[in-house]
Design brief:
The protein has 391 residues and is of the alpha/beta class. The chain has 14 helices and 17 strands.
Length: 391
């Protein structure tokens, strides 16, 4: 199984050498498109470093390396351009999220795939994680009756990465609905069995992160490192993470501004589904340690299902019987077990031309359209209709 990669960074190399190789030990990376050849080569296995050839374009790599599968793991702003190129080929594609960062990109991407034979696995591990899939099975069995309401949350304990790593480059990410919420809004639609059609959103900026510290400032060159709670020494002392190495200042002008665009400290949305049901979603990026939480509570007349990935637990309450259940899942899995499921789908796409991905390009587009509506909503202060795939 020969693999061609566009953008061989940490995430995509982890997926390939982790769950994909676990399922298909004979994989070989034979072609790479990446301007940082030195960095990419440092991530290659000893065997692949001997065989992998670096190409300037995806088209050249497809012609010469003849890969059985393509992986796109570039920076977010390049996902769409390369995916549009990949749509020309009948080669299974693993595409990182978000699949687009603007309406123009999303519409162009949808158009490119209208008649494409390229089958896609969008990197939505939450949707296919065992806990989420198990919850959906209970819903289909009638555990709650008709789903009427969902509440979902994401309290991120490692949120500073969005201000001290390249995620803070707003031109590339376009905010944390697209960067982070794209996962959650996708699985909410999956669980409810219905697309989101309208969004009302709010966001809070620069109350916690961002600021006016000099461009290029790092902790090791800062006079306030001894007192700053985000310095490596204080993070180590307080066990507040997410890492304890020297890093760019999270209060720097490099984090952007309200004028030029910047990530939100926290953001929330009220959503309406095509079914007539509604729900709420909120994400918070300044929580730490065991305040982390990610999951949802879903209700219908017959019952309520609630789960949290960090607790690896699902709770089911029957509304009209004196019984409640708790189901536990195995801990310690990458992306709560979702990465292995995504890899399973990718391998099946290569081996079976009839197999259908559980996270096709349509799921990526539906999530992006919802995220873009949420952005428009908090910028304009009103509810916004969500563009629907195929319309």
């Amino acid at each position: 199984m020969k693999i061609g990669v566009v953008g061989f960074g940490r995430r995509i190399s982890g997926v390939i050498y982790g769950p994909v190789k676990e399922l298909a030990p004979d994989i070989r990376i034979t072609g790479i498109v990446d301007p940082d050849e030195k960095g990419a080569r440092s991530r290659l296995s000893e065997q692949d470093s001997k065989e992998a050839v670096f190409y300037k374009t995806l088209g050249e790599m497809v012609r010469k390396a003849k890969p059985d599968a393509l992986f796109i793991g570039t920076r977010c702003n390049l996902h769409t351009p390369y995916a549009i190129q990949a749509a020309r080929y009948d080669i299974p594609l693993f595409l990182e999220k978000p699949v687009a960062i603007s309406m123009q990109q999303a519409v162009s991407l949808e158009k490119a795939f209208e008649k494409s034979k390229c089958r896609v696995v969008v990197s939505f591990p939450l949707r296919v994680s065992p806990l989420c899939s198990f919850t959906r099975e209970r819903i289909e069995e009638g555990a709650v009756g008709e789903p009427v309401h969902i509440m979902a949350w994401n309290y991120v304990s490692y949120g500073t990465v969005y201000w001290e790593q390249e995620y803070r480059n707003y031109k590339i990410t376009q905010g944390l609905f697209l960067q982070k919420g794209t996962h959650d809004l996708d699985y909410m639609m999956y669980l409810m069995g219905s697309p989101i059609v309208k969004v009302g959103a709010m966001a809070t900026f620069m109350k916690i992160f961002g600021g006016k510290k000099p461009s290029g400032l790092v902790c090791s060159k800062c006079k306030e490192a001894e007192t700053c709670l985000e310095s490596p020494a204080n993070r180590k002392r307080n066990r507040s993470g997410p890492h304890e190495k020297d890093h760019p200042c999270i209060y720097s002008v490099d984090c952007g501004s309200l004028k030029t665009g910047t990530n939100e400290d926290t953001s929330s949305a009220v959503v309406e589904f095509a079914s007539g049901a509604h729900g709420v979603y909120t994400q918070v990026f300044f929580t730490r340690r065991d305040a982390h939480a990610r999951g949802s509570t879903l209700s219908g007349y017959m019952g309520t299902l609630g789960f949290d990935w960090y607790k690896n637990q699902l709770n089911y309450t029957r509304h009209h019987e004196p019984f409640s259940d708790t189901v536990n899942t195995d801990p310690g899995m990458n992306h709560f077990g979702g990465d292995l499921e995504l890899a399973r789908d990718l391998v099946k796409l290569v081996k079976d031309s009839r197999f259908k991905s559980r996270t096709p390009i349509e799921t990526g587009l539906a999530s992006v359209y919802t995220c873009l509506a949420a952005k428009e909503s908090y910028l304009k202060g009103r509810f916004v209709k969500v563009r629907q795939v195929g319309q």
